[in-house]
Amino acid sequence: MTIKCKLCTSDATSILRDKPIRQGAFKKREFTQKAIALHECNDCGAIFLEDFCDVSFYEDGNYREQFNSSKEINVNQLLHDEEINDVVHRIGLHHLRGKSIADFGAGGGNFLDAVSNFASKTFAIEPAKHYHEYLSKNSEVYSFGENFVDAGIKVDIATSLSVIEHVDNPIQHVKELINSVVDGGLIYIKTPNFNDVCSKFCGENFYEYFIRISHSWYFNEKSMSHILKEAGADNFKIQYFHKYDIGNVIGWIKDNKPTGNKINLVFDEVFNAFYRKYIESKGNASHLWIEIKKGEV
Known about the structure:
By secondary structure, this protein is of the alpha/beta class. The chain is built from 13 helices and eleven strands.
């Protein structure tokens, strides 16, 4: 049975998939007992789960325990350090130095740790209270975006790195990001791309890994453009960010399972750099990369 779109309330939705979905670490093959439908809106392009996780799932550590096998902060940090290197490079130090920065969904603080030495001040917005003690060592901490906005603080830069796919209301999330920066401030959003290159080669085998209870939303350029416009973004660019080297997609084609990066192949980093740029140019990167400049058209 189809339902109204959770983003634009349109009736023009269809079911893309109706099977059990991942509810923990993929290598443990942990899936829901019942099928959970994945819906697509033919009007705004939104792709979303029929059931969303409650916010308490992120507050009390269940999310990290189920998907990372531990809620310890060092485990979370090790999983994301390498990816944050690429994020900092993508934004550029010249955009970060001497700036006040708020990271929405800071997790274990990987991004803020990377920029705290040259930012003027950092703010961590993170619902997982067991991370607050660590985050507060270098940043001012808030649990939710609405708390930060209500505090009346304005920063130069706001980031949302692999967060918007978890929230109930992505339009409200972008509004909070916009309301948190000064006029002329910059916002960077990174989120998984539903049109990932691996989905083209592996189909259902990839979706078994990709679709999970913690990701309520699955975005493409059409749905993200709708969200940004509805949230009042004045000037934005939707681009692409590919996290993996060519060994990853070869591993998927060969074994039908995630293999990460750096498989021992004949391809060097020069070729991998070309491969990433090519995949990004075709819109089949692992992630969407959005840049918003507030107050300018």
